Amino acid sequence: MPQPNPFKPVVLCLSGHDPSGGAGLQADIEALMAQGCHAAPAVTALTVQNTVDVTDFRVLDRDWVLAQANAVLGDMPVSAVKLGMLGSVEMVDTVIELMQANPALPLVCDPVLRAGGGGSLGKEDVGFALRERLLPLALIATPNLPEARILAELPEGSADECAAKLLPYCQNLLITGGHGDEADIHNRLYCKDGSQHDFTCARLPGSYHGSGCTLASALSGRLALGEELVGAVRSALDYTWRTLRDAEQPGHGQYVPRRLPLDFCS
């Protein structure tokens, strides 16, 4: 009988399901496979969306989400937890309960508040609940600049201004760029010890569906593999840029990152 492979870390993913496969749990699974990790996906919400936009969503019952997560935690040696769409304050509270019961697990929080097409993926009070109660439990939060502005309540704030507002709530904060018209994209890592790291990459043409999910999942995988934080961020950003460079357009809207090479399973 095959024995469990101790060299393949398990990452518990608490995210929404995207039926287009561009974002959400499918993005988590593919990005973690590419890092050499095993994804354990627990569904937090169901969405009606495609590569154009999201039109509706339904958050699952908290008991179902707890049951999914605890089934994994009771069976597998989970090395990290990755958060995606939560969608409601009740689901924020559900994750807080899980993390308080498992405080040693590094938590990567991707504060999914809007889809790439602009549609909302959470009620107005979710951002406040994330900032006040969940971000303090995370090893790192990975908002893009529009999400950081929502969390910081600074509609026109720069990355530095948002970081100044959010760092009292975060251990570490990665604010990703690409939402302006700058020639190069600047991704900025702000650490609790006061250090700051700027990662620059070339801007790619087009817009992408699932880039934030890809980045946060890759980062959780690198941390699960034992990389230190700054190196893990660099590895995850490099991987994500390559998935966007090779992205495909399966629908009528945004491009979808190619998270797995064509010969991955050969």
From TrEMBL:
Pathway this chain belongs to: Cofactor biosynthesis; thiamine diphosphate biosynthesis
Superkingdom of the organism of origin: Bacteria
Claim: Kinase is one of the keywords in the record: yes
Record-linked InterPro entries: HMP/HMP-P_kinase_dom (IPR004399), PM/HMP-P_kinase-1 (IPR013749), Ribokinase-like (IPR029056)
CDD domains per record: HMPP_kinase
Annotated ranges, domain Pyridoxamine kinase/Phosphomethylpyrimidine kinase: 18-254
E.C. number: 2.7.1.49
Gene3D superfamilies, sorted: 3.40.1190.20
A Pfam family that the UniProt record links to this protein: Phos_pyr_kin
GO molecular function annotation: kinase activity
Alphabetic keyword roster: Kinase, Transferase
PANTHER family the UniProt entry points to: HYDROXYMETHYLPYRIMIDINE_PHOSPHOMETHYLPYRIMIDINE KINASE THI20-RELATED (PTHR20858:SF17), PHOSPHOMETHYLPYRIMIDINE KINASE (PTHR20858)
Name of the molecule in the record: hydroxymethylpyrimidine kinase
The species this protein was found in: Halopseudomonas sabulinigri
